[in-house]
Amino acid sequence: xxxxxSLGITTFMCIPANLWQPLATCLxxxxxxxxxxxxxxxxxxxxRLELFDRRYKVYAAxxxxxxxxxxxxxxxxxxxxxxxxxxxxxxxxxxxxxxxxLKQVADRATAMDVLQKKFHPLPVGxxxxxxxxxxxxxxxxxxxxxxDMSKVFSPYLSYAKIKSTFLEDFINKQH
Length: 175
Hints:
- Helices cover 86% and strands 0% of the residues.
- It has one domain.
- By secondary structure, it is an all-alpha fold.
- The longest helix has 56 residues, at 17-72.
- The two termini are 51 Å apart.
- The radius of gyration is 30 Å and the shape is rod-shaped.
- It has helices spanning 2-13, 17-72, 77-86, 90-93, 96-119, 126-157, 159-163, 166-172.
């Protein structure tokens, strides 16, 4: 074993002195390139997780708003403004499909609220019944969204979307 070790050192020592510096420079360069690539990957993964976190906050705010509506069959203006504030950054985080969905949730909730305000003072009759039926359609749609919204958001929040590899993203230019 000692002979093998001394043979390795002797062979290693046979490299001429004028080649040590370029060889060491090359090894340091390769080492630094590997470190830089790993740091780039860590930064990329951190960006993906931060994007997921921000998108999830929009999802959670939408769900919270829908739960208030379903729980009370009514919402306060403050609930609507809280929903708008919590989803204001959606323009920068999602594609048009989610933006359209969030607008539809807000529009249908507002329509439900307007219809409620119209039929409450009316006496029982055909006009009130017609408004109640229209309000009920909006309420039922909003109720279904508590479960259906996960399908709408899943392309942006699914685990498969988050776990894609750095190399896949780099090749597909999704960085």
